[in-house]
Amino acid sequence: MNAYKPRICDALLRDELAGAGAVLIEGAKWCGKTTTAEQAAKSAVYLDETGKLEQNLILAATKPDRLLSGEAPRLVDEWQLAPALWDSIRYNVDHSDEPGRYILTGSAVPADMERVRHSGTGRFAWIKMRPMSLWESEESSGEAGLEALFAGADPTGAAAARPDLEQTAFLLCRGGWPYVCRLEERIALRRAFAYVDAVAKRDISRVDGVARDEDRTRRILRSYARLQGTAAAATAVKADLEANEARPFSIDTVASYLGALRKLFVVEDMPAWCPNLRCKTSVRTTDTRYFVDPSVASAALGLGPADLMNDLKTYGLLFETMAVRDLRVYMDALDGSVAHYLDASGLECDAVLHRRNGDYALVEIKLGGDVLIEKGAASLKKLRDRIDLTRTKQPSFLMVLVAAGDYAYRRPDGVLVVPLSALKP
What pTM did the predictor assign? Predict the structure, then answer.
């Protein structure tokens, strides 16, 4: 048996348990929520345990304390199967002076989640868990740390662990699923296709009890993959489906399927960044579309590493999803967030990294090579020059994050060039 290797989420969970009565870990299935929760829990109930689901659901409705009794922190796994437990947990937390009583894990959002979140204010903490970053799967050298970059460090000479496009293409198609990362390469590549199969065949309908068609799910997943990294609205997804898929879709159908994918944490859109600018350029406020892991996009499109090497445009789009996944994980560790910038003139910044103290950094994501790096650097400098520095801080750094490259370095103009497989929090 493989020994457990701590994740970034372990430290987040430990900190939240010290201050909140209950902690909810949300995220896509397979991303490791239960295993991480088990490291901190001292007792557990698994609602969907084989042969016990019906019994557990009855107890949740009639005698919830039978499920919730146990040494704290008590893990309640897949809690969304019995949403009624939330009120019992909230009551128990309200009537205890001790933090860290419960850990809840969930791979889907229940229908009344807005009420749940409101009722949990001040009592519950939320953690979003994602598939593993390259640093967590030990496929990044970690020689270029984001925290150090925010402090002004020069990453020049930081070596990449996976410096070429072929290696990165494999990591992209395999994904960051903890179990899959331990498998032989040929077998590992098949698991992303199995993930898409599970979503299309079962999960898309089980998430909220609405029957949805497997074929339509696969077509919408393909369309979403084609629109990765764009601010496409549901109408744009519909237009893409009409242009590329045989079957017609109504806008209500598209919205329903996309809503279900969000509830399953299969897709995770990125909010827009609206800075203070010197000019009066209109800033777009639509969220940018991403899958939670690049392997879902590659599998939805039916692509493997060799296919990406033969289609570098698609490779670049999906690498952006991979980089965004890692940046989100790393910024969680730094108590920060990631946003996207796009204005009416077409000026774009793939990732804006924010910290709570107001520090931020601008990041462009490219496959690599002198031409693409120069293009990314020019875009970053253009955006920097538009920011009104009398009302907004100077960015801590500008960075072109690349798939291919042996080392990180600082260009003469100050822009950093860093391989993704050299990065860590």
Answer: 0.93
